[in-house]
Amino acid sequence: MDLYISSVLLGVLGLAAMALSGLGHGHGAGSHSHAGHGHTGHTGHAGHAHGHGARTGSSAGNSQGSSQGHSSFLWNIMSPRFLFSVALGFGAAGLMIKPFFNDAIVLPALALLGGVIFERAIVSPLWNLSMKFASNPASTLESAVSDEATAVTSFDANGQGIVSLEVDGQIVQILATLQPNDRLLGVRVRAGQRVRIEDVNAAASCCTVSLI
Fold first, then answer.
1. Residues of 18-28 as b/e, b for ≥16 C-beta within 10 angstroms?
2. What would be the CATH architecture of the domain defined by 141-211?
3. All CATH 2.40.50.140 domain ranges in the chain, comma separated
4. How far apart are CA 95 and CA 92, in angstroms?
5. Which residue in 25, 53, 62, 151 is a FRET match for 8, CA 20 to 30 A apart?
6. What pLDDT band is residue 138 in, cutting at 50, 70 and 90?
7. 176 three-state secondary structure
């Protein structure tokens, strides 16, 4: 079979299989996940240590930026979508150019250039646009565990107050109780302070929080 016809078939079948697979799986991997976050208490000192660690880690992350950019580029050009798209564009460009310019060296080069342009100018924008229309899984109150919230009121002597947080694009206000460890340390939460959601009781619309 002709090289360019084979490339067109490969590209069409590959992209079709990827599209069907994407429709089947949706954005499951993008769901709100909190794996790795413990539910143990966070004292003010721990929060300070976390902030210090983040500042220290940022300088190391900057030094790795260039190598990560190169890795991202290599990953993109080796992705199945890129390869199938270029194959489709390569075959289509080759078939269109072949009747007018059938040089054994220049024709494949022009066809490859056409394949890359086809992927960058047509397939990539359409693919990204289609991903925007895929539905995202709805978040629930339980998914807010380890998220940050804002104290709407100062907490009372029992360590209770109202906090606001965003759930699935909506601002929700619920009753919050300061975790026992923080209460033992005499931590006071005032209106406007940021807290972290440690546990959620969706049925009772309340949660346990710690001071950040």
1. beeeeeeeeee
2. Beta Barrel (2.40)
3. 141-211
4. 5
5. 25
6. low
7. strand
